[in-house]
Design a protein that fits this description.
With 181 residues, the chain is α+β, with helices and mostly antiparallel strands. It has a domain of 107 residues. The protein is built from 4 helices and 10 strands, in the order αααββββαββββββ. A hairpin with a 7-residue loop joins strand 9 and strand 10. The longest helix has 16 residues. The protein is globular and about 40 Å long. The N terminus is likely disordered. Keywords: Signal.
Amino acid sequence: MSALGACLLLAAPAFAQEAPDAKAMIADALRAAPPSIAKTATVSDLEGNILREGNSEYTCYPAPPTVAGPMCMDAEWRRWMKAWMGKEPFTAERVAIAYMLAGDMPGGGASNIDPAADTPTADNQWVVEGPHIMIISPDPAAYAGLPTTPDTDGPYVMWKDTPYVHIMVPVAERPEQRSIQ
């Protein structure tokens, strides 16, 4: 056996012990949804493996490391997520709702104007959001008249003028914001 093979063999149990177990991932994922949805939602890990089969349209996911909090979304939002992650075009076919009732991770958040940004800058309106729901609509008029910055006490439009535009609806206090490096 090579030295590399021996190191991998010895390291494997350590990595296996560090991996979150299914129960912990399910509990984390379900923090995103209201109880009525959490009760019937499917739960998947971030690689798409089903951890718990549900019987509703919603699927909940545990928090990705350091980025956002756990999410629970319907089928249309899952289609949106796939397009956003692949940087592909997206047009909503119906009104859809996603829940992030645990909010963003303290070191996470997102730019309010740039869907591809991964760090706060002086000009990208970075926001670490508290508990919130997100809404997409096929009707551009649904976004008209809403604020387009997170500096508001209510709903606002995120990622305006992009295929990933959606309405952010904060439902509790916003946590401390990240500093701009």
